[in-house]
Amino acid sequence: VLQAIKIPPVGGDTLWSSNTAAFKGLPLELQQKLRGLTATHDIRKSFPLERFAHNEEEREKLLQTFKRNPPVVHPVVRTHPVTGEPLLFVSEGFTTHINELPEQESEQLLNFLFEHATQEQFHLRWKWQDGDVAIWDNRCTQHKALFDYGDAHRIMHRATINGDVPFYKEEQQPELAEA
């Protein structure tokens, strides 16, 4: 959940991308290749010490956050627990590598997937107004704030909940009804 407290006069929009639509938009051969692969996700990719720790206190807080949130392995294609639909489950901010692939192949494929998933055809752009509240399903979307507002201030309040453990389950093929 995000609530807009103070919005700059220009810019500061947020983009949400549909990981379900992004997966469906991949060629079938690539969809098949991705099924069963896993990727490592690491919070340190989005919050490097050299950028976010400006003093020893901030450094210690960040190191504690890293300790509480170690790298995790998730399927590259996960199943939405409610809809049962497959979706792409990688993000430029957290996914570091695909575990079953050599480093160079993993990097090339991830870069392709990051760019593919954030194409305009898969996203919605929200222009905030003071007081707006956005609620979304983080299991099947990814979001990105646009920092295009210069020195103006943008104040947002965010609340999150713990989610489920991502999993992948082969889709069930519907049975044909007998005539």
From TrEMBL:
Q: Name one GO molecular function term.
A: metal ion binding
Record keywords: Dioxygenase, Iron, Metal-binding, Oxidoreductase
**A GO biological-process term:** sulfur compound metabolic process
InterPro entries linked = AtsK-like, TauD-like_sf, TauD/TfdA-like
Which residue intervals define the domain TauD/TfdA-like in the entry? 2-160
Does the UniProt entry include the keyword Iron? yes
Q: Which Pfam families match?
A: TauD (PF02668)
Identify one Gene Ontology CC term for this UniProt entry.
Answer: cytoplasm
Key word Iron present in the record? yes
Signal peptide feature range: none
The family assignment reads: Belongs to the TfdA dioxygenase family.
Know the name of this protein?
A: Taurine dioxygenase
